[in-house]
Amino acid sequence: MNKGLTKTFSSEYVHHVWRKNRRYWLITLVSLFSGCTVYTGLHYDQIYGFAEPQPRLVSKQDPAAQHYLDTVRPIIEKRCVACHACYDAPCQLKLSSAEGIDRGASKDQVYDGTRLLADKLTRMFVDAQTTAEWRDKAFYPVLNERAQTKEANLEAGVMARMLQLKQAHPLPTTPQLDADKWDFALDRDQQCPDIEQMTSYEKDHALWGMPYGLPAIPKPEHDILIDWLAKGAIMATMPEPNATDAKKIEHWEAFLNGDELKQQLTSRYLYEHLFLSSLYFDEPDTTPRYYRIVRSATPPGQAIEPIGTRRPFDDPKVKRVYYRLMPDRETIVDKTHMPYRLDAQRLENWQTWFIDSNYQVSALPGYHPDVASNPMRAFHDLPIDSRYRFLLDEAQNTIMNFIKGPVCRGQLALNVINDRFWVFFVDPDLMKSARLSQFINEQAVNLDLPAEKDTVVLPLSNWLNYSHAERRFLKAKSEFMNKVFQDGEHLTPNLIWDGDGVNQNASLTIIRHFDSASVMQGLVGKPPKTAWIIDYTLLERIHYLLTAGFDVYGNFGHQLLTRMYMDFLRMEGESNFLTLLPEESRSKALQSWYQGASKELNDYLDTGVGQFHQPTAIRYRTEDPKAELYDLLKQRLAKVLPDNYEVDSSQLTETSKALLKKLEVNISGDRATLFPELTFIMIEQTDPTATPQLFTLMRNSAHKNVSSLFDETDNRDTAKDNMTLIHGLVGSYPSAFWHLQESDLPRLVDTISAVESESGYRQLLDQYGIRRTAQDFWSFSDRLNQQYMQMRPIEGGLLDYNRIENR
Questions:
Q1: Which of 110, 170, 251, 474 is 20 to 30 Å from 89 at the Cα level?
Q2: Model confidence pLDDT, tens digit, residues 478-490
Q3: How far apart, in whole angstroms, are the C-alpha atoms of residue 475 and residue 489?
Q4: What Pfam family does this protein match (any one) (predicted)?
Q5: What is the pLDDT of residues 462-476, one digit of tens each?
C-alpha cells in the first residue's frame, strides 16, 4: 500500500476513533487526574473551543424561533418550570424564560439564612441584561457555549447531559424512593454541577438526572428537546405587546408620569405597592398579557432602562424617575402570580383618591432609609383615607404580596402566623378623621421598621429598640382608642368594612402550609382559633416590613429581625379583634392563644396590647362570645362572602358531596398529623364526559402559641389538629395527589377512617395516590394543570413540584 495513503488512512482512522470515543477518553483522563475539574475544562476547551455566550435569541419570524415558541417552550413549561422558577429554583436555574435558560445556573443560593453580609443581587431582568453580564456574576451555562456543532451541543451542555442521564437511568419502580439516596428537604444541599463536573456527577449520582426525583419526561418530548439542544437551542423572547395593549400602556404611563408633585408622589406610592404584582388589562374573551411596573431612567416613548435597587424605595440615583409598564417575559407560575387588573374603574378610583383630593404636596420625600422605609414619613402628605382605600380595594393582593413574595419561604419565615385564621378590616369611613391623621403622623417615629437597615449586625439589640418603640406606640394607641371608643362607641359589627356591599376583599382567610402559605377571599373553613382586625397603620406596616422592605438577599440579622418584628404586628391584629369581645373574655382568649408563653411575652401582652379597657357595645347572648362574634361578622359581610370554595359549589352529586365533607370530620387530632400539608384531589364524575372536579385537603396544625422562633415542635398541640376541605386548588406547592372515581368515595371515606399509622397512610396512597414515582405522573400533571387553569384562568399559574412528598 502507498505509504502516503497508509499515513492518511491511519490518521483518519485515529481521528475517527478519537471523535467517536472522545467522551470516554475524557472520563479516563479525568480519572487519571483525580477528577480535576480544571484539567477537564482544559480538555473541553481543546476539543470544542473556548466558551462564550452564543447569539440564541432570534426574531420570532425565524422558523427556529417559531419551533421554540410552538413546540419546545410548551414542553419546558410543562416539565421543567414545575421545579425551576422563582428564587427557590434549584441552583438559581430559572427555566421560565428564554433569557433565564441562557443565563444558566449558579452555585450560590438565594435563600441562605446564615450569611453574615447581604449577598449580591441576581434578579432576572433587573441585575443584569445580557448573558455575558450574568457570566460576570458567576452564573455558568447549562447550554453549550463552545463550538456550535451537534456533538458539542450535546456533550458540552449540562441540560442535554442531565436529560440524557434520566433517560439512561430512570427512577426505580418502587413506590417510595430510598430516603438515604434521595433528599427532598427544602434546605437540602444542592449539587449544581457545571459541565466540567458533569462526568463526576453522572458517576456519583446516576439516578439524579432531570427531572430530579420525578419520572423521565415522555420519550417523544425528550427527543424534541434533545433535537432542539443539538441544533443550538435557538430561542425567541416573548412577543412585544399587541396594538391594543400598546395603546393602553401609553395611556397608563401618561397617568403615572405626570409632572405635578402630587402626581409624582402618588406614582411613587403606587409603584412601591405594586412592584410585585402581575398587571393586566381587562379584555373580555382573551388571555391577558401580564406586565410589571418598574422604575426607569427613561420616559415613556423610549426603551425602558430598569433601575435596579435592592428595595423599591432605595435611592434610584437619577434626577427623575419614570414609572413604566414592562412586559413580563416569564412563564406564569402560581407561587409568584398576583394578578392586578388595570381598567377604567381603577383609573377613576386612583384619580379620585389621589389626584382630585384636596391636599397639597410642597416637596417630594427623599430616599434616605429612615424616611423611605417608613410610609408614615414618606407619604405623610397623601390622605390616609386615600391610602387605606387603595390598600383595601385589592386587599387580597396587598396581603398576598407577603404570602407569595420572597419573604414567605420556609418554616422560620412562616412560623410567625397560625395555620389558619380569618382577617377583617376596619371600615375606612372610620378612618376619615383629622384627629386620626394627626395621631398617625405624630406616631411616625415609633413606627419605624427594620427595613431601614439593609444589613443588621446585632439583631437582638436592634430588636430591643424596635420593641420599645412598639410599646410606646401601643400605649399611645390605647389612650387614643380609649377616647374614640369610650363606653363602647363604634364597637359593634359596623366597625368592620363590609366591602361597600360589592367588594369580596372585605374578608380573607390565610392558611399556612408549614413552609408556604395561601390567602383566599372570604371566610373559608370552620371558625378558627384566632382572627385579626386590620386597620390602616397595621396593613401598611405589614407591606413595608414583609414586602417592600424585605431583602431576600439580606443577611441573617436582617431576616431574623424582620421575623421578630412581625410578632408585634400579629399580636396587634389579634388584639384589635379582641376589642369586639366582652371585656372579661379578652384576657381568657389571649391566654388560650398564648399557652405556655414566656414571662417576657406575658408582660408584653399585659402592658402592650392589654391597655384597652372600653366595653364592647355588642350584647352577647351565649357562653361562647367568640363563636357568636364570628356569626355576627358573617351576617355583616353576607353580601360579599364568596361561595366558590364550598364543597357544595362542585358538580358532584349531593350524596358525593356529603361523603366528601366527612373527610374533615374523620381526620382530626393526632391522626391528622399523618396527612400532608396539601393534598390535591381529582375526582372523575360518574358521567365520563363531565369535567373532573378538583379539591384541596389542607392540614391545619395547632399550636399552643406561635411566638417562639426555633422550638415550633415543642409548641405544637397535635390533639387539636384538623383538616379543611375546599372545592378547587389552593396552594402552589402540593404535597400529594389523589385520583379517584366518584364511585370510589364511599370506599375512600372508609379507608381514611382506618388510617392510624404511616403504613395505613401508604396503603391509602396505594389505592388512590399519584406518587412522584407513578408511571402516569406526567399525564396526570397535565390534566391537573389544565383543569386548574380552566377554573382559575386569571388567578392560576403552573404548580410547583419541589415539595411533593416521598411516601
A1: 170
A2: 999 999 999 999 9
A3: 20
A4: CTI
A5: 888 999 999 999 999
CA–CA gap between residue 228 and residue 150 (Å, rounded): 10
pLDDT at 105 over 80: yes
The x, y and z cell numbers of residue 736, run together, are: 400529594
pTM for the whole structure: 0.92
Q: Is 509's pLDDT higher than 90?
A: yes
Q: Burial level of 780, CB count in 10 A (0-12/13-18/19+)? A: middle
Q: Is residue 279 helix, strand or coil? A: strand
Q: What is the DSSP pairing of strand 291-296 with strand 722-727? A: unpaired
Give bridge partners of residue 496 from the DSSP assignment: 426
772: pLDDT strictly greater than 70:
yes
- Is residue 338 within 8 A of residue 401, CB to CB? The reply is yes
Residue with cell 416573548: 238
C-alpha cell at 677: 400539608
At 197, which amino acid appears? Q
Please report, for residues 293, 585, 603, 704, 715, the alpha-carbon distance to residue 594 in angstroms, rounded to integers and kept in the order given: 41, 15, 12, 6, 10
H-assigned helices in 279-394: 344-350, 369-372, 375-378, 384-393
Question: What percentage of the chain carries pLDDT values higher than 70?
Answer: 93
Cα separation, 12 vs 20, in Å, equals 12
**SS3 of residue 489 by DSSP:** coil
Whether the pLDDT of residue 4 is over 50: the answer is no
Where b means 16+ CB within 10 Å and e means fewer, 547-578 reads bbbbbbbbbbbbbbbbbbbbbbbbbbbbbbbb
- How far is residue 339's CA from residue 276's CA, in Å, rounded to a whole number? 10
| pLDDT tops 60 at residue 146 | yes
Q: How many CB atoms lie within 10 A of CB 546?
A: 26
For 316, other C-beta atoms within 10 Å of its C-beta total 17
425, 430, 431, 436: CA torsion to nearest 10: -130
Residue 632 φ/ψ, nearest 5 degrees: -65, -40
Locate 765 and state its grid cell. 396512597
The three state secondary structure string of 153-191 is: HHHCCHHHHHHHHHHHCCCCCCCCCCCCCCCCCCCCCCC
Phi and psi, residue 588, nearest 5°: -60, -45
The burial class, CB within 10 Å (0-12 / 13-18 / 19+), for 437 is: middle
Tallying the residues shown for the chain, one arrives at: 807
**Phi-psi bin for 568: left (phi > 0), alpha (psi -120 to 50), beta?**
alpha
C-alpha cell at 661: 365533607
The upper half-sphere exposure of residue 90, i.e. CA atoms within 13 Å in the direction of its Cβ, equals 24
Residue boundaries of the structural domains of the chain: 33-230, 240-364, 407-641, 647-791
Distance from C-alpha of 322 to C-alpha of 299, rounded to nearest angstrom:
6
Whole-angstrom distance, CA of residue 799 vs CA of residue 796: 9
**Rounded to whole angstroms, what are the CA distances from 756 to 672, 673, 737?**
9, 10, 20
CB environment 670-696: b (16+ within 10 A), e (fewer)? ebbebbbbbbbbbbbbeeeeeebbbbb
How sure is the predictor about 444, in pLDDT bands with cuts at 50, 70 and 90?
very high
- For residues 433 and 647, what is the distance between their CA atoms, to the nearest angstrom? 42
Give mean pLDDT, residues 677-689: 96
Tell me the H-state helices in 193-259.
198-204, 219-230, 243-256
Burial 85-119 (b: 16+ CB within 10 A, else e): bbbbbbbbbbbbbbbbbbbbbbebbbeeeebeebe
| CA pair distance 68, 60, nearest whole angstrom | 9
What is the pLDDT averaged over residues 89-115? 94
DSSP structure class, residue 284: T
Statement: residue 372 has pLDDT above 80: yes
Task: Read off the DSSP letter of residue 671.
Answer: G
| Mean pLDDT of all residues in 627-647 | 98
